[in-house]
Amino acid sequence: MNHESTAALTNAFREAFGADPDGLWAAPGRANLIGEHTDYNDGFVLPFAIAHSARVAVRRTRTAALRIAGRQEVAGVRAVEIDPARLSPAHAGEVPGWSRYVAGAVWALNAWAESAGHASLLAAGEGYDVVLDSDVPIGAGLSSSAAIECAVVTALAELAGLEVSRETLVLIAQRAENEYVGAPTGILDQSASLLGQSGAALFLDCRSRASRPVPLALEEAGLEILAIDTKVSHAHESGGYGQLRAACEAGAAGLGVQALRDVSVGELEAAQGRLAPEVFARVKHIVTENQRVLDTVAELEAERVEWAEVGRLLTASHASMRDDFGNSCPEMDVAVASAVRAGAHGARMTGGGFGGTAIALVPAGACAEVTAAVEQAFAQRGFTAPSIFPIRPSVGARRLAG
Ligand code: ADP
Ligand code: MG
Known about the structure:
402 residues; alpha+beta; Ribosomal Protein S5, domain 2; Alpha-Beta Plaits; 4-stranded antiparallel beta sheet; globular; binds adenosine-5'-diphosphate; binds magnesium ion
């Protein structure tokens, strides 16, 4: 975030609340390099934080209220005031639109603080003022929602002087999304946003929650990752995502395992006869995807990275979603196929699916050609023009100067 936008956020805070903020914090969106829908199956994921981020300006106040304002008016909501006595999931329905992501993060952090024996964040007569600003594209599969939650929990944990690890903040932010907003998502997004490092992806075992950075040295290799926002919007809270989760649970139950993480590629053949065809297809994606994550990590940690092989794994992941998991869409398939045809090492849909963003691993010199080819393929089919921009593995949540 450059100096200009820091100043703009501070000014917006002054305008909204007539005072200076105590500080500014940022938390990034993320792209998942590979490992889709494996998170809630106790499996492996490999996301990276991107430079696009949610920023919050926050002040602790002597007013018993949580006051939230946004620099972007999203779905008609601009400013909200919440009575701390009504800050629980039972009252989340009274909180409009996007401000639920902020309120949910405050609630979840406060619930953790109280359960860990710390003072309540919203003790009698105290509150917080928050202004939110974000340049993470909304609903594009780059996790604008987790960016907000992670910015808020990072800010309030610091302001309240709570000693809480990043790993715990991940779970707190996830709880906000699961229990307050009502979206049944795993820990992938919040982990990337809170634990991401510049120049690296985050290899995360969603069962043990152990993670480690894996080098993703694109610049040295003369590579870019292009994000292709297809402009097809998804909606996590309804429909497809829940059905896919249910199919995975049915698959695990049918195979008598705790989670699909416990099934290996070698066991798939035997599993086929024991499951309904559609459930088997979902299971096959998860099982092969876990292996592709492990293969990608091994490749990226090798002394000499074969980028063509990394690309092949990405494209195979996409084919698996398209053919077995059923969460792709025509725009995505066109984006991936045309990017690869124009010179990308590989490409895949990133994020939950049914639209959103594709990523393409592209030699820097071929970016213009790949961009033009994808745009042309979209135009030919009468699709809405995509938005295509480079994304780079960036630092996770942090306090901003200024
Ligand atoms: P994703 O996380 O993939 O972008 P979600 O549906 O999970 O999509 O979250 C998008 C929601 O996050 C939006 O509908 C809105 O409520 C909230 N949001 C994202 N960015 C902003 C913003 N700049 N200002 C206000 N709300 C935002
Ligand atoms: Mg989201």
